[in-house]
Specification:
- The mean pLDDT is 94.
- It is built from seven helices and two strands; from the N terminus they run αβαααβααα.
- Strands 1-2 form a two-stranded antiparallel sheet.
- Helices cover 55% and strands 5% of the residues.
- It has one domain.
- Helix 3 (38-65) runs antiparallel to helix 4.
- The chain is mainly alpha-helical.
């Protein structure tokens, strides 16, 4: 268990998340993206509730079989992928409207994937939430900073049509860190996530 609790290197962590950097963004869409994304928000919210139920079922499956049922694993990842696609659009990272779907490669500007584990520890499922607590504290601080960065980026896009690259990378990295912790706390992987925004 001690080995599993050690943070995996960022480059080796089995969760892939990235958003392609756009060379130009629409100024007009800044005012309408949140409205246009409302149908997606409703679906993602419902899927998020399902993910909670899936985690509970997976808890007992891992406890008795040391495996996360593959169909449930894939469904959970697809739900997160859909949410990641919507975040890329509503978060002003991309202008392309996300598809109403969750298949890999369906929304080319966004990459989200999680490697399926062949075996999971039946003991870690009892303490992952506790082990992830330092990440929750760090991410809370990161998202406070991210909120202000998003505001500055919004005005930068409004006046220049470009998302400042440093801000873009910081925000995508913060989301990447958050998704890794979500995957760990959601029981999908045993490797402890790194305290890092790096890809």
């Amino acid at each position: 268990m001690a080995t599993q609790a050690a943070a995996a290197p960022a480059a080796a962590y089995p969760v892939q998340f990235d958003i392609q950097y756009p060379q130009q963004l629409s100024r007009k869409l800044l005012f309408t993206k949140w409205i246009l994304a409302i149908p997606h928000f409703l679906i993602v919210s419902a899927l998020g509730n399902l993910q909670g139920s899936i985690t509970l079922i997976a808890f007992f499956a891992i406890l008795f079989t040391k495996r996360y049922p593959r169909e449930l694993f894939d469904f959970y990842v697809k739900c997160s992928r859909w949410a990641a696609n919507v975040t890329a659009y509503a978060g002003f990272f991309r202008d392309e409207y996300p598809p109403f779907g969750w298949d890999r490669g369906q929304y080319p500007p966004v990459t989200f994937d999680v490697e399926y584990p062949q075996e999971l520890s039946p003991w870690l499922i009892f303490v992952k939430w506790l082990l992830a607590f330092p990440h929750y504290i760090a991410l809370a601080a990161m998202f406070v900073i991210a909120f202000f960065v998003w505001i500055v980026a919004w005005f930068a896009i409004l006046f220049t049509g470009e998302f400042p690259r440093g801000m873009f990378d910081f925000l995508v990295g913060t989301l990447r860190w958050s998704y890794r912790v979500q995957v760990y706390a959601g029981l999908l992987r045993d490797e402890y996530p790194p305290f890092s925004t790096a890809a």
